[in-house]
Amino acid sequence: ITPLPDGNLLLNGYTQLGRGELQQLTGKGHPTRAWLLCLAPDGSILWEAIDDTEGTTRYVTPILTTAGEIAVLFYNSPSQVTTEIAIHRYSLEGELKEKIALPLEVGLVEGSMTDGFVFYDWEKGYMTVDLTGKVQWIDISKADRIIGSGVDAMVPYGDGWVIAGRTNNEDAGEAIAHFNRHGKIIWYYTTPELAEGFFVGPEVQEDGNLVLNWYKLNQETGETLESRMICLAADGSLLWELNIPSEARGNFTVTKDG
């Protein structure tokens, strides 16, 4: 579920139709249609978007763009073989604006970034794709603690990137780091306590500071045990942190007032 700036909620995934006047999808290969659903705060349906591409399609990893639109990744994987990957752009009212085809080599998405997505290939490493479909390979060193097994979030920062993800050192855990455009670490931030949780949603403020959410889960039940908002200076030092209700975690939008 993705919160939208107007207070509505966006759901993404796929549907097999078969409701109202929509015919149930049948046949080989588990046919589905990529699907978005927008709900008002009271749970009523505001709009629904279903892509009509044939195959086994789905929408994953929706993001809110700086232009005030929705960008979501489209996958078509009939018989569990991916044949099509694209970025689909929608207005907040559910109008399809554009489809941007991506090369199949990008593979599976690892996370999101400002106006784009992060992918990972076992042989080539990490790559980013912006909303025009431009692919950029990033040489993120695995030799110095981070990032070893997955990117949770990534945003352009200075001449490089700020990346949140899992480390690959002997004390493996969560961290956030600033890399330059060559993939070398400029700074690295975590603590033993924070390493047991997750950093998500880093946002760059007008003054160059970073605001992000950190939360910790009960690994057995999935319950959120704790959630905080954290602010880091441009050099990676901690400026402040604020405990927030545990149910408030994940995606958020930075405004001038908060």
Offer a concise description of the structure.
The protein is mainly β. Helix content is 0%, strand content 50%.
Structure description:
The chain is an all-beta fold and 258 residues long. The protein is built from no helices and 20 strands. The chain has strands spanning 2-3, 9-15, 33-39, 45-50, 57-64, 70-76, 84-90, 96-102, 109-113, 116-121, 125-130, 135-138, 151-157, 160-166, 174-179, 185-189, 198-204, 210-217, 224-232, 238-244. The strands form 5 sheets. It has a 4-stranded antiparallel beta sheet, with no helix packed on it. Strands 5-6-7-8 form a 4-stranded antiparallel beta sheet, with no helix packed on it. It is globular and about 50 Å long. The two termini are 21 Å apart. The model has no long low-confidence stretch (mean pLDDT 82).
Distance between the termini: 21 Å
**Class by alpha and beta content:** mainly beta
Total number of strands = 20
Order of helices and strands: EEEEEEEEEEEEEEEEEEEE
Largest sheet: 4 strands, antiparallel
Number of helical elements: 0
Q: Low-confidence runs (pLDDT<50, min 5 residues)?
A: none
Strand percent estimate: over 45%
Strand order of the largest sheet: 1-2-3-4
Mean pLDDT: 82
